């Protein structure tokens, strides 16, 4: 059983039901330039997804209220990614959490932890210190990533700081990293589900593809990889609730490395099972895998993995690998 099933089933189902009826843009286009983007974003706003963390106070991350808000944000981001839809939900949730200033309900807000992704489309820019500015011209995109998200390249941005070196609040950085991991997990779950559906439904020589031993082996390897990612992300979320920053930092670094490896493996294997069908306009697999690739490489020029901060002492490193206490 996936640990994501602990999220509010009603929220997960609501996201799934809404996105099922959303039109898909043409592949390779800037999503903000498609006819459906603004309508889809307005739907997310009207349903309250973007404002989940507006009143969040994670001073006591283990409190029932904090747990409920964090799980709701994680659940919405995960469900959207599982369906293969790239909207600036994750980035806006973090930006709205990071500022005490009131933002318009429909604002597309971007914070330095987004590493420039969606910044050209932003209607509100939240700085490292939480101050808000409004883009004069909406920004200019350097490129669009594989998921169709416009971005501005950012360089020399160290761990916990923006391009100017201003330190980010640690809790904001933790929330941003955790939501990124949830988005990767959701996209991976969607890709694996699509691959399994395809090999189960696709009949060749009178039998479903899943009957072929080699195909069953690959499908099994996908399940193992997904379980590894699910466990690592779940552990990071549990440590967030426990409130131990040192332990949480280790879990986030570990989960990020697992996510990078699993993203590569899941996309490779899922497309191998689909063959050429996986990249066609009619298939929905590529919406998940392109989001996986884009998230895996997010901030590649500027992200500091934080590996230098890990302890070299064997005893301390062993202590950090101990799972968080059950119930957190």
From TrEMBL:
Gene3D superfamilies: Butyryl-CoA Dehydrogenase, subunit A, domain 3 (1.20.140.10). Residues 183-286 form the Acyl-CoA dehydrogenase/oxidase C-terminal domain. The keyword Nucleotide-binding does not apply. The keyword Flavoprotein applies. Keywords: Flavoprotein. Signal peptide: none annotated. This is Acyl-CoA dehydrogenase/oxidase C-terminal domain-containing protein. It comes from Streptomyces antnestii.
